[in-house]
Amino acid sequence: MNGLTHLERLEAESIQIMREAVAESERPVMLYSIGKDSAVMVHLATKAFYPGKPPFPLLHVDTTWKFRAMYEFRDTLVERLGLELIVHRNEECVERGINPFDHGSALHTDMWKTQGLKQALDRHGFDVAFGGARRDEEKSRAKERVFSVRSAQHGWDPKRQRPELWHLYNVRRSPGETMRVFPLSNWTELDVWQYIHREGVPIVPLYLAAPRPVVDRDGLLIMVDDDRMPLLPDEVPMIRSVRFRTLGCYPLSGAVESTAATLPEVIAEMLLTTTSERQGRIIDHDSSGSMERKKQEGYF
Amino acid sequence: MAHATGDLAGGELAGGDIEAYLEAHEQKSMLRFITCGSVDDGKSTLIGRLLYESKLVFEDHLTALAADSKTVGTQGGELDFALLVDGLSAEREQGITIDVAYRFFTTEGRKFIVADTPGHEQYTRNMVTGASTAELAVILVDARRGVLTQTRRHSYLVSLLGIRHVVLAVNKLDLCDYSEGVFEAIVEDYREFAAGIGLTDVTAIPLSALRGDNVTEPSPAMPWYSGPTLIGHLEAVDVSGEVLERPFRLPVQWVNRPDLDFRGFSGQIVGGSVRRGDPVRVVPSGRRTTVDRILVGDREVEEAVADQSVTVTLTDEVDVSRGDILAADSDPPGVADQFEAHIIWMDEHPMLPGRSYLLKIGTRTVGATLAHPKYKVNVNTLEHSAATSFELNDIGVCNINLDRPVAFDAYSENREMGSFILIDRFENTTVGAGLLHFALRRAGNIHWQAIEVDKGARSTLKGQRPALIWLTGFSGAGKSTIANVLEKKLHQLRRHTYLLDGDNVRHGLNKDLGFTDVDRVENIRRVAEVAGLMVDAGLIVISSFISPFRAERDLARGRVQEGEFIEVFVDTPLDVAEARDPKGLFRKARRGELLNFTGVDSPYEVPLNPDVHIDTTRLTPAEAADLILEHLAGLPPVGPGGTPH
Fold it and tell me: Which CATH number fits domain A6-191: 2.70.70.10, 3.30.1360.200, 3.90.220.20, 3.40.50.620?
């Protein structure tokens, strides 16, 4: 060690990973989900290649069901930083009107996100894609590599993953293979928040508490973000002071009741909280091996 | 609060000033450590306990844990902390961890990254991986069993990978009546062994991970122990070491050139520090220059230190590219292309001496050939034994030859400057890792004598363009038949030829070789060398060998000049070759009398881009020979002075 703080070391490590991936790829891309982890990744990327711009586009695999505030935030950010943004929507989903209400969260997520991501990567011929996943998010991710090889079908085979020693990453790919790169692997949720605070990284306002219209569905507070949300017969949206710990499709993102309207208050609440971040995500609820299975199918 | 015990991270918060709290927490340092020990030593329990005590186990995880503890737990329905950390579902069912998992927890003073590696015998690979980035190792010992073979193995790997700080965690003392005598005996036993392998900074702590004794709070059950708790020690230990005092090293990752006004060199500093105005040297080129500006991200600074990712600009327009090292002018790293190194083999396929691999050191990737091992190390006894190759999880020493010089420091001086990985050229897998110790002096600095009678002179005299025509395919594919016809035809054209095949090589030059993969590689290596000399003599050489591996065919290609190697794929489907079976070899192999037979129990790697592709189901041997002659005729003629261009 050297007198650097943990955030300085994490930042330096992430930048080293990004530069290594870009130096050894032909067509890199950064997957951009608009969430706080993406926000940190973009911030790191602007630092890594300063005074140049990040030498890759952002790819947003859209589902048309994100919060309106997310779309606004995305467009402002891209405009301000002068970055190239590619928005991909699975055409089949658009045509068939796939949505979480009629088709269920599993099919909705698989078709929009998993299939949509594969389509976008194939269409643009990206060989290396940055993702904001962290090892602390879920038990099966604790062993994920920083540089994760995916087959031509985007599958994740635990046996194909390479040992990673020192800071020597093997970025070589066989024809058709691609690589997912996770620069935030060693960050925790708390690190991400502390870094956002220290650096003043802009985030979607939904992370901060405000009065918002929500309904209670099976114990999850779902925000009624637009009139596409079908209400049950006796359901009336109520105004509650809520914030979100993770952001995705609004019908699938559970809010927490909170009065934390500033970043320090959010961090304070987080330090006292007793449930894990992913609990608000509906897709993880099935069973303890579910994330591992999704990964093998090509979910990020 | 979800649980009564511990609350390392949030303890000071209740009612406190959040801004001040954040300020303090953003100034934390970080420690990366590895835990070594088997499930039996309570390693997973210890890590689960650390996560739990630092409040990283949330209510929903605890609910899942409580449920899992009842169904698959080993603690009779009580919370089984080990279940918190066993990762992928397959291995949870098997009850052993089979990879490196990284865990995170934080206390008031530090953030910790824990590399959790299994203690199981065949998983040297995982432990080496986890140890490569660790600054400290926690070695667990079961108090009832004392220092075991595996304790020695783990300690050796810790020492080999250059971790200087060790915690000897003597666990399960609750099962030994918290006996001071048991603890002291184990510590004494361990210190003696550890000193012998260079581990001198050892802190021993008596523990019960299951009961929480001496994990975060001093144990009332062990009043005889006055040292730090495990967490207390991990928070306080100073591992800053010497990396800051080392000479400045910056491996260049990326040349940042957004416009004509800015040309910066980006990378992570792996040794020492650098200030504006410092004289630096570009290695290996040796060009000297001075640091102009230093950027950490978008911030301009006067000085940057080891571990920071920076972009520097230089005062001169010197040539610097990815793979170069910017180094302290007064103390630059060595430059060499031959080394002695420790190798840790990590692939299912054994290392093949003489085969060409890719070697990545710092930000540079070069071609590398490994010599025959000098010895391998028995990680249990630390004895050296002879070896012909390295297999999965083997550790040993051998010489390495690179195809061009690289900058390096000895691993003991600088981990990042003395470590490398080996990559298979075709599979692109990481097959091994290594530590550089020192450069070898080139064998008497032999320079090839520039003799006046050279290949050009010899081939001019013969009036021909030398070539190496390499026939590859299954046994029974028709290689020898085609080779014979081809040589006759060339002879009629008054060409000087020589035919190398199994018959004239296996009986003499290579009669000491069998048919294992290692011997097959050596067989082809010798043939390639001989063929290379014959081409240098100006001959047209026809070689006829199964040569099943791409790497060896490429090795042969590398022995001659570009354009001189003609790969001919004699393509006969396996069933057709087997039906022909002119020497009865397939029948023997199928009966199990002949092992490692290509196509039966040994693979054949099809040429990806052969110069001539012969489908023997459609062409006669004479037609096939004509196809090769046509290809030869289509090559550029012998240039002036006889050197083909």
Answer: 3.40.50.620
